[in-house]
C-alpha cells in the first residue's frame, strides 16, 4: 500500500492524517502488530515540500531547470501544466504508466487527456518508490492520493447554483476512461478501485454524526492518465482519491482537526479492509450509488 500526500502544496490535511496513521500502525497494540505483519504501508508525506513552504499548488521549479535536466527538450513547448507566473509545475499531471518513459520534445506541451513525463523531481521520486515496491512485491495493491478541494455542495439549482448539503470529503476511483487508449495494461482493475472506495464510504457513514458522514463522489467525468492515480491504476493498483474540503487558507484549528480525522478514518478503513479480508467481499456496484458532488472547484 502506497500513500502520497500534498502533491499540491496548499492541501495539507492528508499529511497530518497519514502521519497520525503511521503513529497508530507503529504502536504496540495487537491490532497494529497484525497489520504490520499483513501489509507493507509506504508513505510519501508532503510530496510537494516547496509548494507547502510557499503555500501554493505548484512546485518551485522553472522550465529552464527542466531543460538543464533534459537537454533534448530545449526549444520544445513548455508543459501545459507549467505555471509561468508561479514558475512551477502542477506535479499532478507529470506521471506516466510507463515507468521507463524518457521525456521527448514531441510529447510537449501535452494535454489533460494525455500522459505526463516525469520531468519533476517529486514525480520521479514517487515513480522510483513505486518501481521498487513492484520489484519487491510484483504489484502495488493499493495507491492512495490525498488532496483538498474547494467548497462544494451535493445539489444544483435550476441556474447551476450550488444547493443542498456541504460535503466535507469527496472520493473517487475513476481516473481512466478507456485503458486501451494508453497501451496494454492487463492488470488494470477498476472494480478493485470501486471496492476500495465503497469500503471508505461505508466506514465514514458508520460514524453517523456530522461531519464524517458527508461524503460524496468526486466528479466522475474525468480521464486523467497523467495523474499518479491514473498511471498507477493502469499498472494494476486499486486507487482512491481523497479530496478533503478546504485548503490551508480556509480551515482553522478545530475545523482542520475534523477534516484530518475523516481522512484518518478512511485510511484506517483501507488498511482494515486489506488485512481482515473484508475488502474482497465488497460489492463494487455500490460505488455507483454514492451521491455525487456538484459544482466545480479546483482539485
Ligand atoms: Zn490537489
User: Could you say which small molecules are bound to this protein?
Assistant: zinc ion
- The order of strands across the largest sheet is 2-1-5-10-8-9
Total beta-strand segments: 10
Distance between the termini: 23 Å
Helix content: 25-40%
What global shape is seen? Answer: globular
Largest sheet: 6 strands, mixed
The assigned structural class equals alpha/beta
Molecular structure report:
This protein has about 300 residues and is of the alpha/beta class. Helix content is about 35%, strand content about 15%. The chain contains 8 helices and 10 strands. The radius of gyration is 19 Å and the shape is globular. Zinc ion (ZN) binds near residues 11, 147 and 299.
Labels describing this entry:
alpha/beta; six-stranded mixed β-sheet; binds zinc ion; Aminopeptidase; globular; 299 residues
Helix and strand layout, with pairings?
Elements lengths: L1 E4 L7 H13 L4 H9 L3 E3 L4 H6 L8 H7 L12 E2 L4 E2 L31 H17 L4 E8 L5 E2 L5 E2 L5 E4 L17 H17 L8 E3 L10 H7 L3 E8 L7 H24 L23
The structure holds zinc ion.
Brief digest:
With 299 residues, the protein is an alpha/beta fold. It has helices spanning 13-25, 30-38, 49-54, 63-69, 121-137, 190-206, 228-234, 253-276, and strands spanning 2-5, 42-44, 82-83, 88-89, 142-149, 155-156, 162-163, 169-172, 215-217, 238-245.
